[in-house]
Each structure stands twice: as structure tokens, then as C-alpha cells.
Amino acid sequence: MTELSSPAGTIYDRGYRHYEGPREGRGRRVRAIAVAGVRRVLGLKRNWKTKVVPFGLLVLAFGPVFAFIGARVLVGEAVGEFLGYGRYLRVVAALLLLFAATAGPELLCPDRRQNVLALIFTRPVTRSDYLLAKLAALLAVVGLIALVPLVVLFVGNTLTADSAATYLRQNLDDLGRILIAGSVLTVFYSVVALAAASLTDRRAVATAGLLGVFLGTTALANILFFTASFEGRRWVAFLSLAGLPGRFVDWLFGVPYDPGTLADQAGFTGPAYLVATGVVTAAAAAVLIWRVLRLRA
Amino acid sequence: MSGPAADAPVVELRRFSKWYGDVVAVADLSFELLPGVTGLLGPNGAGKTTTLKAICGLLHPSQGEVLLFGRPIQHDPMLYRAIGVVPDGDRLYPRLTVRSYVRLHAELQGLADAGAAADRAIAEVDMGPLADRRLKGLSKGERQRTKVAGAIVHQPSLLVLDEPMTGMDPGQRARFIELVRLIGSAGVTVLVSSHILAEVERLASQILVLVSGRLAASGDYHAIRDLMADQPRTVMVKVDDARRLAAGLIALPSTVSVELDGDALRARTRSVESFATALPRLARDQGATLREVRTTDESLEQVFRYLVSRR
Questions:
Q1: Domain B231-297 -> CATH class
Q2: Considering only alpha carbons, which residue of chain A is nearest residue B147?
Q3: Is A25 exposed, middle or buried (0-12, 13-18, 19+ CB in 10 A)?
Q4: What is this model's ipTM?
Q5: What is the pLDDT of residues B151-193, one digit of tens each?
Q6: Is A165 exposed, middle or buried (0-12, 13-18, 19+ CB in 10 A)?
Q7: Where are the domains of chain B?
Q8: Which pTM does this prediction carry?
Q9: What average pLDDT does chain A have?
Q10: A-side interface with B, Cβ within 8 Å?
């Protein structure tokens, strides 16, 4: 900016000029949308009502872990074992479904509902950037529930054990399982929730639809399995979307299926459910990509 | 991104057509935009928004080409670094503050110092005192100015504004017009659509007029008015004896009609040139004193009304 100066004053040249400074790359654009998405989902810098659901679910996911670790710090190993990583993940999986079913639509639906896509797509942002950013935002917040509480629990168990080194040596495999199981749950729920959200611009419809499909397929699978009699009926175990990643997680941590349940009687092992989880995730990803790449501003 | 071609027009439409099923929105539209402010005019349904959307890369031409800096924007999203767009309608994130909204756009443009760029753009649209207010609590005019700040945060070479002054109060409009003129005078190509002709008249001398999806006129609107040869023009004459002069004027072959209005008369003529030649001679012959002579239908509205009505 040029200036004309005299002892008495200064006249600034406020003339308009083109920006010729440095520009950052694709990562910055994706990060900007992703960060805005995380803020939106968690209700950050918004009124308290938008924080109730996300922070309520975070408290449910983290609360027992911190309470247990606190008790271990105060009383020591006399507190005994926590629920176990696998069983705790079962609890967390239910929270993940609720969280993803509200967060996914929150990320995608308002952009179309409030007609802001024209503002986004008249910037150097491609549909793929947009998709990547939204997915990154949801993976981050879902991962926060699926991975972090158990990692914290593992660290807490290690630090409050009589011998941290011994605990770590004996249970290091669990850390690997936590990371694998948490990642599977995170990717599965994030992709499926965004795919559902991409089909409508109404958040409530997307949330209700996703929960309805998960609950409905579970009920349908159980009804078919326990009431019908036909060749190969054990395959209906794969109809229950909500059960797919959970059964893999149970297998991974060596948690037996509850006796008499569909999972117990169908006779499939964890890898089969992992493949089914992958197939559903891939199908949801295909729907999501198809919908987002064709978004009209 | 390879930089924009230096010698290519900023915007060039080559026989651009867009249709939706059987409905033709825009047909065979060709023009180039030059630096400075150009007004895009047309009645509802004329194809203004379709044309703007095509320029902004938000829709594909059914036929023809839309080139920005010599290249089709659909194949090169990095061209958006050089353009700023204010779409029509209320497209904002209502819970963001003005500053965070403009900053988000600076980040989407990859500006190194997004915060400083946002503050500068906010100041340019006079939104500084409201920078920390949420968008949902702002008036329509304030939201419009925020959108403009988001569009100019990266100081683009092409600025596309679709009905940008909607909801602004007269003071805000005046300042906004001043800002757009300043941007245009700095060599930026600005395309403004508006249905308020008085605003376009103050903003832009270059106009594009669309009627029924076709280009009805383009260029300087004064020049367009001069080309409207079949349209009689009105000349207002203030004279000390209007009645006597009116009798002389009506006898001129180019005069269509004469109306008396106190000490003034309004003559409609097919040829301003012959009228201007004959008037002083007639006044001298009749001993009348001319006090004021001026054409009264040079306004953009007159031009627009004429172009729309002849289709």
C-alpha cells in the first residue's frame, strides 16, 4: 500500500488490487471445510442446545473410562478389571450408531437445505475435496468415540498396574485390537451415515432413516432366522447391519457370542462379518461418491 | 494451475445455449466481457441466472462454449482463484459470524494470511463493526454485504454479482455502488445482474440485455439508445413563448408530437439531429428565447423498455 505523507497527515492509497501473495494447496481447502464440519457437529461456537447430543454422547463414552481410572488411581488394582475392551466396544458401538446418525446428516444436509453449495463450488473446491473434507470431519469425531476412550483406558490400565512394563508386555496385543476394531467401527459408521445423509437434504429424515434401517434389518434378520425354516437361513445373519461390525469386534477380542442369539447359532466367525462389513461399507461409499459428485449447486 | 492466458478475454461466451428438456433458457448467446463494470439486464425468465451460472461453472452448456481466461472453467477449478461470486438468494451459514464466514472463504481460496484478508474484505464492505455478529441476526442488506466480502476476500480478477443490492438500504446501496465502481476502475471485470435499472445505470455504462434467452443488446447504453432509430426521442424545451414555438415545431417533418407543459414543451422527434438544427432557426424566426433544451428519455429504463417491448 503506497502512502503520501506530510508532517500533518497521511493519505492512504486504498485502491483495489489483485491478490498476488502465496496460495496454499488442496490440503488447506479440505482442512478448512473439515474443521468447519467438526465444529458444526460438536456444536462448537454455537448455542448450548446444539452441544447437548454430541457432548452427551461423549460423556457416555468417556465417563465410565475416567471413573474407572480415577478409582484405580485411588484404590489401586483392588478395583478389579473393567468391563473388558471388547465388551466396552459393544457399548460404544451403540453410541457410535447414534452419534453417526446425527452427525452425518448434520454435515451434509444443511449445505443443500440452506443452498450454500453455490458458495462452496464457486471457490477452488472440487466435489472430491468436498467429499474428502466431510468424510474426514466425520471420521475424526466418530473416531473420537470409537478409539480414544479405549486408548485412554489402556493407558490408564497400564499406568495404574502394579508393574506398568509387565502390563504393557502382557497386553500389547490388546492395543492393536483396539486400534483395528475402533478403526473398523469408525469407517463403517462414518461412511454409512454420510451415504444416508447424501440421499436427502433433511437431517431428521436421514437420521430416522438410518436408525430405521439398522433397527429394521436387525429385527428382520432375527424374525427370519427364528421363525422361518429354509435352506441356508443362517445367511440372514448378514442382513443385520447393526450386528456386522460388532460381531467382528467380539471375535477379535475373543468375546463369545451370547448363547441362543442369532450370531451364536448362525455359526459364522469374525472374518466373515469383517468381509460383510467391508461390502456394506463399499456399497455405502459408492452411493456417497455417486451422490456427491453429482451435487448441483 | 497454469496462469490465466494474458491475451484471452476474461469472459467469453461462444454461441452458448442451455435448455432443460423442451424449454430453451438461453439460445445462441455470444459476447465478451471487458474490464470494468457490465450490467446484465433482462426481465424475469430472460436467462440472466442461467448465464451467470454458466459463467461461474455451475452448469454445463447444452451447446457452445463458456470460457474464462480462454479456458472452460469446468475443466479447471483453479480458475476459481481468479473469480469471486455472489450468488442470488440467501446462501449463508446462519450460525457463523461475519468474520468466520469471510475467513472460511479466504481459507477455501488458500490465502496464506486468511485472517488479515478477511478483516480487509470486511472493512471494504463496511461490516467492521458487525464482524463478530452471527449471520442469522443480520439484516438482509448486511448479509448481502457479507457475501460480497466473501467474494472479494481474494481480490479476484472477475467478480460476478447476482442481484447484489437486494435488501440494502439507500446508504448501503450508495456505498456499495462506490465500492463496485472502485473495483471496476481498478481493472477488474465485474458482471452485475440486477432488475433495478436505476442502480445499474449508476454502476455500469456497459450493459448486456437478455430478452427471452437471447441477447437483445450489448455495449454502452447511450450508444444503444442512439441505435434505436425507429424509436422517437423526447426533447424538452423551455422557452419564453412555448405555445408559438410549438406551432412551428409541429410543422417539422421529423416531429411526431408536441405537448405543452406551462413554459415548457415536450417534442417527440424521429431525428434529434434535424430537430437540433431546426430549433434555433425556428426560435430566432419567431423571436423566442430558448432557456433550456435537453433530451429526457436517455435513461437506461427507456432503453430497456424499448428492447423488451420490441421482442
A1: alpha beta
A2: A119
A3: exposed
A4: 0.75
A5: 999 999 999 998 888 777 888 888 888 888 888 888 889 999 9
A6: exposed
A7: 11-226, 231-297
A8: 0.79
A9: 87
A10: 15-19, 21-25, 28-29, 31-33, 36, 40, 45-46, 110, 114-116, 118-126, 296-297
